[in-house]
Amino acid sequence: MDFDFPEDIVIARQKASDFAKKEIKPEDARVYDKQEKFPDDLRKKAFELGIVDYTNPWSMLVTIEELCRADAGMGIAATVSLFGAEVIMLFGSDEQKQKYLGSVQTGKKIMGLAVTESGGGSDVAGIKTTAKREGDKFIVNGSKMFITNGSIADFFVMLVRTSSPDGKRHHGLSTIVVEADLPGFTKNKLSGKLGVRATNTAELILSNVEVPAGNLIGEEGKGFYYIMTFFNISRAYVAAQAIGIAQGALDRILSHLGNLAKSGRSEEITEEIQFLVADIATRVEASRLLTYKAASFLFQFKPNPTLTSMAKAYASETAVFATEKALEITGVSGITGDLERFFRDAKIMEIWEGTSEIEKLIISRNLLKEASEGN
């Protein structure tokens, strides 16, 4: 078993690292966070320089990790233009792929995934947004909440209810492409988020929005399964975001302790602190290896949902642990510097794309199912 990446992925990581050091400055990250402003110039530059390469999933994984190591808000904003693209890639028609994916893969347009609703949260099957078929169009009514790229996306892959469930709530759901400039479609940017404030998040309200029937992705009624497939993919990327945050926190701890040693204050680096550093570094490496293992199955088209959920949950909790301990170790300098923002960003990792509790339910249910089938 070879744990070394191929040369092209090593180069991609270094390229992303160099880009992050040059373009994601701490002072800029603080401004974007405070102003809750989307760094569109950074996003465009990442595409222009070939930092973002959606044709190579391993490249994207390590790029996300390195950019979030510098700052999660700006790093995610630079790489999230195609959020939801896998649904079209896997289940869309050739016409839909050509019409919608070409422009976002080159950075000319931004897309979003609209699933979450204010009353649903992680309960995907409980969504209430409807799309009623009338001739050659769907009439969409409802609302979506906490949608990434919500007020800046050109179009959305949206989960809607196209028919009543037949006794199972996840039946009767479909995915459609909804363009953002259609009459009756309102976007309200959300402010005051806990973390990743440089990303754009919005509430979407749809009132009798007319969507061409040709915008249906795949088969009607299969939307729940399409979205679950997407989440199984995206969770690997969220794990990479969390690893980046955790590694960034460790970088700052080591820099702080190095400065203490240089200034003749080595006695302040107690054994307790050294134990914490070792624990954080071990958890980061364990998260990275678990994520890479899950990704190796995923990128060979042999997804292992148990491993993916393990990676996402453990990496997210590692990010929170690392940033929390970083604040304890660095004290005032951490609270008043980047680590305060890193801590807020880390907490988001435990929430979106499936809370840690949801991931653990998936893990335990899959293990119990395997055990029962084995008996």
Structural commentary:
This protein is an alpha+beta fold. It has three domains: 7-79, no CATH class; 86-221, Beta Barrel (Butyryl-CoA Dehydrogenase, subunit A, domain 2), CATH 2.40.110; 225-374, Butyryl-CoA Dehydrogenase, subunit A, domain 3, CATH 1.20.140. The protein has 13 helices and eight strands. The chain has a four-stranded mixed beta sheet. It has a four-stranded antiparallel beta sheet with strand order 2-3-7-6, with no helix packed on it. A hairpin with a 2-residue loop joins strand 2 and strand 3. The protein is globular. The model has no long low-confidence stretch (mean pLDDT 94).
Number of β-strand runs: 8
CATH-defined fold name of the largest domain: Butyryl-CoA Dehydrogenase, subunit A, domain 3
Q: In the CATH hierarchy, what is the superfamily of the largest domain?
A: Butyryl-CoA Dehydrogenase, subunit A, domain 3
Biggest sheet overview:
4 strands, mixed
Instruction: Determine the N-to-C terminus distance.
Output: 31 Å
Strand order of the largest sheet: 1-4-5-8
Q: How big is the Rg?
A: 21 Å
Structural class: alpha+beta
Treating each run of at least 4 consecutive H or I residues as one helix, how many helices? 13
Helix and strand run? HHHHHHHEEEEEEEEHHHHHH
Residues in β-strands, percent: 5-15%
CATH class of the largest domain: Mainly Alpha
Q: Segments where pLDDT lies below 50 for 5+ residues?
A: none
What average pLDDT do the residues reach? 94
Q: Can you name the CATH architecture of the largest domain?
A: Up-down Bundle
The figure for the number of domains is: 3
- How would the global form be characterised? globular
DSSP helix fraction: 40-55%
